[in-house]
Fold:
Amino acid sequence: MEKSTRRVLNETLVKLFNDVMSIEEKAVITDNFKDITNNDMHIIEAVGVEEPRRMSEIAKRLGVTMGTLTTNMNSLEDKEYIIRERSTTDKRVVLVVLTAKGKKAFYHHRGFHQNMIKSVVKGLDEDEMKVMIKCLLNLNEFFKQYGENQQD
Structure:
């Protein structure tokens, strides 16, 4: 790979990392959802719309402690985006479901991501998309390994 190609790739990745959170926040935190943060929106996404999800599973998905998640869930529950319930089969387990308001936020956020993906793959054929996926998986693995090495 030429030096200029590496430089362009580096500059593009740096710009993407710097832009993605602020642009996403502007896109998803609209007047309808001004009472929550972009972080809250990602918690709502982790809860999902399928079946009730365990608090421990949500914390693991997000890579946060149960204490951090509990604090955020308290806020989301106060704002009526989620409901927490004890499992009927195991009282130690706390299950989380989205309210109608939470589902509305979930689908709004999902729409942003669907539009983002459409934009990213526009004009790519199946083989090019596979190469892109491989590159992104490699990048994800780099971050995972880098993060693990930083904890040592």
